[in-house]
Structure prediction request, 552 residues.
Amino acid sequence: MSASPGPAGTPGAFPPGDWQAGLPARIARDGEKWANTTIAREAWRKAREQGDRIAIFLEDEPDATYAELALEARRLISAFVELGLKQGDVVSFQLPNWREAVPVDIAAAALGLVVNPIVPIYRGAELRYILDDAATRIMFVPEQFRSIHYVNMLLELAPGLPALEHIVSVRAEADYLGVTRFEQLVDREPVDLDTLPEVDPNLPKCRLYTSGTTGFPKAVLHSHNTLNYVQQCSIRHSGISADDVMVMPSPVTHITGYSSGINMSFMSDARSALMARWDADAAIDYIHRVGGTMTVGATPFLAELLDAAERRGDGLPSMRQFSCGGAGVPPDLVRRAYRVLDNCITVRVYGSTEVPLVSYGWRDNPELAATTDGQLYAFEVKILDDDGKPLPTGEDGEIAARGPGMMLGYADPEQNAAAHTEDGFFLTGDIGRLTEDGAVLITDRKKDIIIRGGENLSAKEIEDVLHRFEAIAEAAVVAMPHERLGEGVCAIVIPRDGQVLALEDIAAFTDGCGLARQKIPEKLVLVEDLPRTPSGKVRKDILRKQLKEGEL
Prediction:
């Protein structure tokens, strides 16, 4: 079975970019720290050595063993080969935290395909852009989940996506013309492992889209080695062992859930427990059932878990670590966790899709765990001034990070030069400082994004939609404080010619334009003008400050 990539720009090709030219230097610098394996290789090993052991705990269906998941992945590989998929082709999935995401990931890794996890909140506008940009050949979606009918949405988009050849429905109750059921796809003889190609762990494993300030998501490429390195650092730093169960409410289509919810069970001796819907009381019951010991999640998960635990008088004694990040984490929330949970170290961590887990939480100092964003562990970090020169400890500047766990690069080569320093540090766009204790503390950010419940939302994307509304002369979208989610979406608008606008008008318009509901403004402020720089740029830092202080 051939697995060679095609020429650049053709189906089956890895996207051309700076990561290709820089890979030999990366191997020379980081190669000794990489494990040089894939989730597929580890899945076959686990199936041989401990096939009857549970790999993934599941809420409302039978738990999945290593042998079961490996067999399903081998059947899926047979289907992929029949469909003509080859190395470098993109396999997208927009699935909840369901078991089917696991064999899809394993099967793709075994053939050198690139997986493209897409968060379930995305609808038409975002989905069309991502699938077209990725040149996705096969897409896995639920028939319907919550209020979104994914199959119908895909069928509407498909005529405008020439690369998309196959739509696969997962857990569907009905048949659709041009759509294959997941059950049909895996109804095949499992592939013979001896026929599988050798997959280079330095080549792209996944393509994750992250919102940027340009309004268009950026495609982040990670190799098997870069993601595995971050996991191995987590394993060492947290002392993860066969006794651990990682409870995962974060979507498996987000870097956190993908890494710790799917891959961790195969790259370590720990297992994971997937949650498809977040509910704090259900989470507590689930933690007790599976013996949950760890989790990684955004601020709302921690806050609501503590509320439920305190209400029930339950200290969750099996839990030993909660790593919290993805949005601002109030120090008092971490301090409260130490009071409410019996044995759980609760820490703040910092990272991004491009540089996952730049810092790990302080495990032996509760106060530093509460007041900093963690100790540096897996990355080199510099704090830079506006001219790109390093700043001393204690001074605020842009955080730049470099290490074996950083992305290969963006798929678009034009985006890479502006995102890196000449010596290969990734410019995070976040403002912060290093402390005398060796911690990093985030104090602000340059990137114009809104972090709502751990999800990055592009303000410009929302503004671009609002500027299509005839009643709006100008709009600025900024983050506003949100008690539960950390940040919410606020639209500050100059009406056109004295038009009268209400929040309901804005919500109906943006919803009609196909934006995800999470991006629909939750507050509307009408103004006569906006604060600006001498060059005319809107001073969003002032707007955020006014919102925080209740002046808007």
